[in-house]
Amino acid sequence: MAAKRAQWGSKIGFILAAAGSAVGLGNIWKFPYVTGQNGGGAFVLLYLLAIALVGLPIMMGEILIGRMAQTSTVTAFRTLAPRSGWPLVGWLGVIAGMIILSYYSVVAGWSLHYIYLSLTGAIGGADPEAVKGLFGSMYGDVTLNVFWHAMFMIATAVIVIGGVQQGVERAATILMPALFLMMTGMLIYAMTLPGFGEALDFIFGFRLDQVTGATVLEALGQSFFTLSLGMGAMLTYGSYLSKQDDLVGSAISISVLDTSVALMASLVLFPITFTLGIDPAGGPGLVFQNMPAAFAQLPGGAALSTVFFVLLSFAALTSSISLLEVVAAYFIDERGWTRRQAVVVLGTLIFALGVPSALSGGTALFGARFSELTTPLFGLVGKGGMNWFDTFDYVASNLLLPLGGLGIALFSAWRIGEQARRAEIAAGSTLGALEGLYLTWLQLLRYLVPLAIITVMLYALGIFELLGLI
Ligand code: TRP
User: Using an 8 Å Cβ cutoff, are 229 and 405 in contact?
Assistant: First the structure.
């Protein structure tokens, strides 16, 4: 006999948990630096369009599949399309979840280490150049990386063992409001800085002349990752919804919350960047090198830096919970494992999978050998010489997630019967019952979304460059 399936305790609990999945390193670390590299406003405008026209429709489709099937990703596809190849889309997601979590946890571990550094006075008031150097010494310290990676995986596992209501939902209802509060505090601080005006202009000055094909595709790719789409995270969370819950309204709330945090993060980071004359196009080092160096020079830097890295760790934690939940739910729903069994076994496996990433991206383990291996594989598209960490990120973000997203879009827009789909969207939702809105959503999901995903994937795989088109 199957036990009664878990459900969210409240409507807001689901929204916070799903927003927690969406809001992560992608918003606070990646969005600001990609915005910086792409000249600011032009990128932001395209990103907002991508969220509305591509991200939101997929999110609705993904939650729809989960709520309709009332079960997690692989099982959902099999329930709705028996004896077909569709469960493969679910499988892709489970594998992507394991891969992403393995290195996501390593980066989140860095964030934990920076809380420690902030608290022990290594950042506030220290020499900025020395603070920048902290990253290099941390990256090279194998024991330290494995330790924080382990701590972060344990925190994630403990929460997921707690279950849907007592674990995932409860963590989100504590961590998400705390995150918003800290972000608001930092934003108010950033508004007092002389560089705030310049930052506003940089982020919201829509310079359309700076838009290139690559900017469009970059914005699309980011909209996808930031909303946690394409691997069944939203599907699995949607499976804990009841038919009375408003699917359309929730998807809109989640997207708005996620976008707000990305914009707020930029409104915190760029005023600091401009005030201290740091290059906004500095790339991935923005959060772990330039920001700490900036905190070193600002009054109250130790406190600011502590708050910032606690905030970053909270954001990462609510995302990693969703990654582990997708993987665990598969073994619970499909294989009949207990939650504890699933979390302990898979948590350990994913931890192990992440260890090479923690060993200086794999170089401490394989030397140059692993990177040499990736050259014949990806060298053709100009991505040769990647270490373990880079390879995992590349394969998951550019191959598995877009493929999963494509599968989810096609399945929800073409495979599910028209009547069932219409009823599912309208159930519990005033907006979902609007004919015009339903048809717009369906057309976007049927045509624009698949086209956009295929284009982004070809771009990310370097095919356009290969053909000399970009
Ligand atoms: N959205 C998260 C971020 O922005 C990352 C994430 C969590 C994710 N779960 C996901 C991305 C599922 C893709 C799929 O950092």
Answer: yes
